[in-house]
Design goal:
By secondary structure, the protein is an alpha+beta fold. Helix content is 28%, strand content 26%. The chain folds into three domains: 5-44 and 156-234 and 342-391, FAD/NAD(P)-binding domain (3-Layer(bba) Sandwich), CATH 3.50.50.60; 236-332, 2-Layer Sandwich (D-Amino Acid Oxidase, Chain A, domain 2), CATH 3.30.9.10; 404-472, no CATH class. It has 14 helices and 18 strands. The strands form three sheets. Strands 1, 2, 7, 8, 9, 10, 17 and 18 form an eight-stranded mixed beta sheet that branches. Strands 11, 12, 13, 14, 15 and 16 form a six-stranded antiparallel beta sheet that branches. Strand 13 and strand 14 (276-280) form a beta hairpin. Helix 1 packs parallel to helix 5. The chain is globular, with a radius of gyration of 23 Å. The two termini are 45 Å apart. The structure holds flavin-adenine dinucleotide.
């Protein structure tokens, strides 16, 4: 291997690319991971932050996917307890709900069965017990609730830790953020890739034996640029948006699942995360620029309307929104174009024997999604594939704990700057420190702005940052 040649180049540093990169490195296969933006800055930091089987997919009879996802969820709870936490989700049922309690009980039993009874067993609650648990729920017409177990995850941190864990296992591999693939050519058995540094515009040429495209919703847009691939669109992109609401305005203790009253019959998750509550999601077709998707006025109204139906006493308004975010589900197009009914299964395409394109899937199933690719690559190098390797515990030398706002020390900050590749102030605050907004900063001795401005000299040793960028952070 010379400096510009890699056995594998993985294009796309979301959870899918990061998972494949980790698995390759655990098997001793050196690789290069690149992402056009920061790692995990797209779909993989904009999910509903759940590891789950997908209670909603029971209606689509997607049993295989639910089985696999529940199995993965329960594994990650063991492997990465710092990042994934089991929670009891409450699904309230009202007089006018589409499914009565007895039907819900059958569904929840099936969900537990598909987990091999590894899930905490489901429960059915009376209206009184439901209100004892969550007094802010609307009591009118309440018939009771189902309670089942799923998990919440720090999605951005999990992806970053896959990358950092991969790098720990080899000295030859590299992970480059802000590096995009701008040209791809196959000559005989070798791939010639032109990479562009998005911050300096520098071009770098590398060669590879294998290329893995893990571009999530960007798959069609990127691959169409490379004539040699003759790529035909495979995705049905679906936009989903979320709100972060102040926890003191919506003081719930457990995640709730509320159902929409529209004909789509969607579910909306209302999930407490320390001092804020996540509310989402929506599901709509979109032609927006995927790198710049934003919540629309209609989506905000839609989410607030359902929230206020279920929690009328809270009287939540736009004033209570801390921040919002939107992402694009990389669904693989099936016969119809009904977003809700389209399967969340992934697909792998092989335009050439050593080119892999992986699309679709869910955050929860990223580990198993990529295994087929790693196994094939291992075979090409006569390395025996061991699916147990990716079940090793994560290394904890990195900053596992999110929300460091109240106890961020100089030492921790320098460690993050040195080891975790932030290249902009947003990378540092949003993804490395889990502070999507400065309103979540809790250190009483120094304000958010003061803290970072006082350390600007140190930050500038690692990437260029101005006082204005810190002040303008939302
Ligand atoms: C609203 C919403 C809610 C969701 N909730 C859940 C949930 O609760 N649980 C769950 O299991 N799943 C959930 N999902 C699904 C899950 O988030 C996605 O399946 C998963 O994050 C996709 O990861 P990815 O790596 O395929 O894509 P991405 O994370 O988008 O990664 C693709 C990467 O490719 C990079 N890229 C693009 N162009 C180039 C280029 N030219 N060169 C180099 N790199 C490039 C991008 O910058 C990006 O980082 C949700 C999805 C959405 C949208």
């Amino acid at each position: 291997m010379n400096n510009n040649h890699y056995p594998v180049v993985v294009v796309g540093g979301g959870i899918v690319g990061a998972g494949i990169f980790r698995d390759l490195n655990l098997h001793g296969i050196s690789s290069l991971l690149i992402d056009k933006k920061d790692f995990t800055s797209q779909t993989s930091e904009r999910s509903s932050k759940m590891l789950h089987g997908g209670i909603r997919y029971l209606e689509n009879l997607d049993f295989q996917l639910i089985f696999e996802a529940l199995h993965e969820k329960n594994l990650w709870l063991k492997i990465a307890p710092e990042l994934a936490e089991e929670k009891e989700f409450i699904l309230p049922v009202y007089e006018n709900s589409k499914r009565p309690l007895w039907q819900l009980a059958i569904g929840l039993f099936l969900y537990d069965l598909l987990s091999g009874f590894k899930n905490k067993p489901f429960k059915i609650l009376s209206p009184k017990k439901t209100l004892d648990l969550e007094p802010s729920l609307n009591p009118q017409g309440l018939k009771g609730a189902g309670v089942y177990a799923d998990a919440v995850v720090e999605d951005a941190l999990m992806t970053l830790h896959c990358i950092f864990d991969a790098l720990k296992h080899t000295t030859h591999s590299k992970a480059l953020n802000y590096t995009s693939l701008v040209n791809f050519e196959k000559k005989d058995e070798l791939y010639f890739l032109e990479l562009k540094n998005e911050l300096t515009n520098e071009i770098q040429n590398v060669t590879a034996d294998h290329v893995v495209f893990a571009l999530g919703p960007f798959t069609d847009q990127v691959l169409k640029n490379f004539n040699q691939l003759h790529w035909q669109d495979v995705l049905l992109p679906s936009k989903g948006s979320h709100l972060w609401i102040k926890k003191d305005k919506l003081p719930i203790e457990r995640p709730l699942v509320i159902t929409s009253h529209d004909k789509e019959d969607r579910v909306i998750f209302v999930i407490p995360h320390s001092d804020k509550v996540l509310v989402g999601t929506t599901e709509i077709k979109t032609k927006e620029n995927f790198f710049d998707v934003k919540i629309s006025k209609e989506e905000i109204q839609y989410l607030l309307r359902h929230l206020n139906d279920y929690f009328p006493k809270a009287e939540i308004t736009e004033e209570d929104i801390l921040s919002t975010f939107s992402g694009i589900r990389p669904l693989v197009r099936e016969d119809g174009d009904n977003l809700g009914k389209t399967s969340r299964e992934h697909k792998i395409y092989r335009p050439y024997a050593k080119t892999f394109v992986i699309a679709g899937g869910k955050y929860t199933t990223f580990r198993t999604m990529g295994q087929e690719i790693t196994r094939t690559i291992c075979l090409n190098y006569r390395v025996s594939y061991n699916h147990e390797l990716s079940l090793e515990k994560f290394n904890t030398q990195f900053n596992f704990k999110p929300h460091l706002g109240d106890k961020l020390t100089d030492e921790a900050l320098i460690n993050i700057l040195k080891n975790e590749y932030p290249k902009t102030f947003e990378d540092l605050a949003k993804r490395r420190l889990s502070l999507p907004t400065k309103k979540l900063w809790k250190n009483n001795e120094e304000s958010f702005d003061q803290f970072f401005i006082n350390r600007l000299e140190t930050i500038n040793l690692y990437f260029s940052c101005t006082k204005e960028e810190i002040e303008q952070y939302p």
